[in-house]
Design brief:
The structure is a single chain. By secondary structure, the chain is mainly alpha-helical. It folds into 2 domains: 1-64, no CATH class; 67-173, DNA polymerase, domain 1, CATH 1.10.150. Helices cover 56% and strands 7% of the residues. It has 6 helices and 4 strands. The chain has helices spanning 35-51, 67-91, 96-114, 128-138, 141-156, 162-173; strands at residues 9-10, 13-16, 19-22, 27-28. It has a two-stranded antiparallel ribbon with strand order 1-4. Strand 2 and strand 3 (19-22) form a beta hairpin. Helix 5 (141-156) packs antiparallel against helix 6. The relative contact order is 0.09. The mean pLDDT is 84.
């Protein structure tokens, strides 16, 4: 039976035909990771997948990427985040209807506001100004509650830096729903 994963190794990464490969020499270290570190590594991996995706090439990104490709990538990342949000709401005991209402409100914001920007942005890139402007134009009690729950989810799961999320949380707490 092989080593327990994850395994700490030293390797040289090389670009090859648009992919990342290594020089075939892996030098393992005699280090084992405890359950907490493995959990944190899995959380970091999940966060990277949701934020910007896993890097699969060392070649420079095309500066003039197709806008449709950018939107598609943002939609994919948003879908992963919204699925995690749904799971969090279910864990908190909300009904299926309420879960879908909150997730739909946030998804609508992402698609009609964030994706419509000149540089399409995902849910992790939302700002206080985005939330304020969107709620001013589309605000209702359900939207406000959905945003409160979503920002709390982002903070509690570490998906958004506290410094970025705290102003949104404070703004949403002072809105009369």
């Amino acid at each position: 039976m092989g080593p327990v994963l994850p395994l700490l190794v030293q390797a040289v990464l090389l670009p090859f035909e648009g992919q990342i490969t290594y020089d075939s020499l892996l030098q393992p270290y005699t280090v084992t990771f405890g359950a907490n570190i493995r959990h944190r590594l899995n959380e970091t991996y999940r966060t990277i997948q949701e934020r910007e995706g896993i890097t699969t090439t060392l070649e420079p990104a095309n500066a003039l990427a197709n806008l449709d490709e950018v939107r598609s990538a943002v939609l994919t990342r948003n879908a992963k985040t919204l699925n995690a949000f749904r799971r969090d709401l279910a864990r908190r005991g909300l009904s299926t209807n309420m879960i879908e209402q909150h997730a739909s409100n946030i998804e609508n914001f992402a698609q009609t506001w964030l994706l419509a920007q000149d540089a399409p942005r995902g849910l992790f890139d939302m700002t206080l100004e985005d939330v304020q402007t969107y709620l001013d134009s589309a605000g209702n009690k359900a939207n406000t509650t959905s945003f409160k729950r979503f920002v709390r989810f982002l903070i509690e799961t570490g998906r958004m830096d506290y410094e970025q999320a705290a102003p949104m949380r404070d703004f949403l707490q002072h809105i009369r729903a």
